[in-house]
Amino acid sequence: MRLKTITAAVLVLLTVFPVLFMTFPVRLIHSVSVNAELRGYADAAGVLSGVLEQKGAYYHSFAADWGSRDETHEFLTGNDRQFSQTGFTDSAFRKIGTQFIILLGRDYTEHYSSYSERCGKYAEEIVRVIRKNKSEIEKLAFSGRKFMILSMPTAGRPLLLSVSPVKPANPEKQADGFIFMGHILDKEFLSELYSGYGFEAGTTRVNLTSSSVYAKEGVNSISSVEFLSSDTAKIVLTLKELSGKPMLSLLFPVKRTANTEILSIIKASFALSAFFALTLLTAAAFAFRKLVIKSAEELAVCSAKTAEGKRTQREKATYYPAEFRIIDSSLRKMADKNDSMEKNLTEISKTDKLTGIANRRFFDEIFLYEWNLSKRIKRPLGLLIVDLDDFKLYNDEYGYSAGDKCITRMADITKSALKRNTDIIARYGGEEFIILLPDTDQTGSEKIADDILAVVRDAAVPHAAAYGDKILTVSIGLCSMIPENGDTKEKLLLEADKALYEAKKKKNCAFSFNNL
After folding, report:
1. Secondary structure in 3-state letters for 111-134
2. CA gyration radius for the chain?
3. Per-residue pLDDT tens for 231-277?
4. pTM to 2 decimals?
5. How far is CA 52 from the centre of its chain?
6. Domains detected in the chain
7. How far is it, in rounded angstroms, from Cα 295 to Cα 304?
8. 3-state percent helix, strand, coil for the chain, nearest multiple of 5
9. Locate the GGDEF domain: which residues (predicted)?
């Protein structure tokens, strides 16, 4: 019969291998295509990075030119205040390619700015950011840096900025001030940059990722590409600050240029592979049904009958696989073990886990039985409720683990006072035990209560937090009655509970009873 199992396995392999055989080459082709596309986008990101660097150098050349003019030096040294009347217009700014010209004195307190209308609301913010970072800017200006990038958190825009010192007449003297020129890296600037260098126009976005200030000379960038859809990708150009942490990201959408012929081949290959796999899978499923499933169904029916207690003798069919015969044998053993476990669970369901005496559920069953029997033969039935005094204080003093051990010990002590096998003791609550005394009147019940109090005193379990003697004591409420028609067992339980309440008032190993 193992030959059929091997045959089924062969059919499955015949289904899997064609899929693998066709999938790996297809995935390889697809991987090569995607990698080539990614390299193309990486080159595009390099172009964009270079363009930004060219823009920075372009602004720097203007700033250096302005810094060498005599009228600029005269304005900063206070010799000529007519410079502010030069009257730059938006058209002049567009011609230069910048958005602002800012002149600051050496101490950065005095400044002059001229800017385009679109840059007007950011002019004061630009001056504030420059002043805040003046020490770092001066280092960059005198170290020959071409440009830098500042972030303007308040304005929410980064700034492509060039700086050049205003050269004094005496080269040995410090610069009289600084000239700043640049452009805000807003959406319009990036769209113009994007579309002006061979890319199709699209929506661009700037994400400020840091409140840091400077980028290195040249654009120190890291780029990544994300495929948004089958015909759209996104280039992410991330500029880093001097410390190397990402400062801002420029996002450019591009139209994907993947080889459509390769994509068509991939789709056709997958379709052919799916058809071939489906055909073989159908054949394998038919064989599997014939060889395995039919046998499994018969075994399942027999197993269900066994679970219901119908131990039927199953005939050994010649088409049973060897593995199913092992399952059949295992099910038989499991049925035998279940019978044994059922007996053990029945015993466990009657016993309190902590103390080992009867639990409340089992007590209720015995109580009902003894109550009905006593009512029928007109014999007395006694009931004792035993409660540990000041047990909350015991837990507070010694801890809950010690409290559990104490409850177990008190259960054994109380049980030792019962001499008859017919007397039933059970754990009724947290620190409360209940004792059922069949064929026991009021006098007999009081005698057993006295015995319990005596063994508890003799045990002298320490209780440092007790109000009286520093030992653990109990209170007992008892009642005995001959059930009559119309009486209920709850009545006997209620009277014993009332008696316990009275006994609790007395303290120190006391009992109380109610006559019925």
Report:
1. EEEEECHHHHHHHHHHHHHHHHCH
2. 48
3. 777 777 777 665 666 767 777 777 766 555 566 666 676 677 677 77
4. 0.43
5. 42
6. 2-255 (3.30.450.220), 262-345 (no CATH), 360-515 (3.30.70.270)
7. 14
8. 55, 20, 25
9. 379-516
